[in-house]
Specification:
Helix 3 packs across helix 4. The protein is about 60% helix and about 5% strand. With about 120 residues, the chain is mainly alpha-helical. The longest helix has 20 residues.
Amino acid sequence: MTRQHGTVVLFANAEEAWLWTCRMVTGSVYGVPVQRAPEPILRPCQSLDVAHAVDQLYRHGQLTRDHLAVLGHYGRRQSAPDPERDREARARLLWDEAFGLIAPVLAAKGFILREPAEAVVFELV
């Protein structure tokens, strides 16, 4: 996949796509310049495409307000909740649940690499 004389790089997983989205949205909302590599990485989507996928899951009742609160808080923090910290254990459960729903949507859209488990199932079929 190429665009503007460069190679589009898929996200490794849904978490990476979400954290990138939060970084891009935060930068545009607050006018903070986004750090760019000397050669910017071309992504397969815009940050609002990922946000829209999450919004649709919420609107269809698959994600709850608790999921969104965790995604928002840790997205702004740019790291996943740490399950080893007692105060973050529930947040980590919600985080994992959310990405269990988000990952297949982003993979179907071609934004992320397929998870290894999905690839194995595909090969066996």
